[in-house]
Write a structure and sequence with these properties.
mainly alpha; 0% strand
Length: 251
């Protein structure tokens, strides 16, 4: 029970930091919105997909938004370590795991909010999901699962980095993976070698699951694959983050 209370305290601390740093929220939202505008109005006319291109591309933009938001966990943790805040926490009677849990849960909540804003902008631009309340809950669940997994992986990378700048660089691939997936174009249009990678990387099944839930298209085996990928990444990230955190705070 003490661990839960400590985690809630750390969560409250991180939420307050986010609210006091609006530039972080603005950038987390502005970047995906700009990319959405670019793909819909600049590249959209050249894209050939079933239905309106904005309906196809929005799930990918949401995942891009989530990946960017989750990557900030690495920078936040690295900043705490660099500024000595974690050393102060060690002198207090709190669970060490609460520091990591607070950052990860805050990341999930923050990214759900920013993703909702991006979806709202997309609706204004013409996005028309054909879904129901139950499927909307499914979309939120898949998105939360994806952000949760990436946030733990990001936390582990934040422990590896020696400074916030390096932590930011380590998470670059979070922004890269959606581009090599079915986020913006069907994978069938890619060269064979790239198509194979795009079909078998973690982002594609998550996007296809969200697209199916939002647009009422078949999900197939994308749902189970998304759960397996997210679960595996979350477990690996959690174990690595806990181990690295204990190493860096044991001296």
């Amino acid at each position: 029970m003490t661990t839960v209370q400590d985690s809630v305290t750390m969560l409250d601390r991180n939420i307050r930091h986010t609210l006091r740093s609006p530039d972080t929220m603005i950038m987390t939202i502005a970047l995906p919105v700009m990319i959405l505008l670019m793909f819909v109005y600049v590249f959209g006319g050249a894209m050939r997909v079933d239905g309106a291109y904005i309906d196809y591309v929005v799930p990918g933009i949401i995942l891009l938004c989530a990946g960017f938001g989750a990557s900030t966990t690495a920078v936040a943790l690295s900043t705490d370590l660099a500024e000595g805040i974690v050393d102060r926490f060690r002198a207090m009677a709190i669970a060490r795991s609460a520091v990591l849990t607070g950052h990860v849960v805050e990341s999930v909540l923050r990214n759900l909010v920013t993703s909702a804003v991006v979806i709202g902008v997309a609706v204004v631009l013409g996005f028309r999901p054909t879904t129901d309340p139950v499927r909307w809950l499914g979309v939120a669940g898949v998105l939360a699962m994806f952000v949760f997994a990436l946030s733990w992986l990001s936390a582990a990378l934040g422990m590896v980095a020696r400074n916030p700048e390096a932590a930011n660089g380590f998470t670059f691939f979070f922004m890269f993976l959606p581009y090599v997936s079915s986020a913006f174009v069907p994978t069938s249009t890619m060269p064979t070698w790239l198509h194979t990678f795009a079909e078998n990387q973690p982002v594609t099944p998550v996007i296809e699951t969200m697209r199916g839930l939002l647009m009422g298209t078949p999900i197939g085996d994308s749902g189970p694959l998304a759960v397996l990928w997210c679960g595996g990444i979350a477990v690996a990230g959690y174990l690595a983050a806990r181990w690295m955190f204990q190493r860096r705070t044991s001296s």
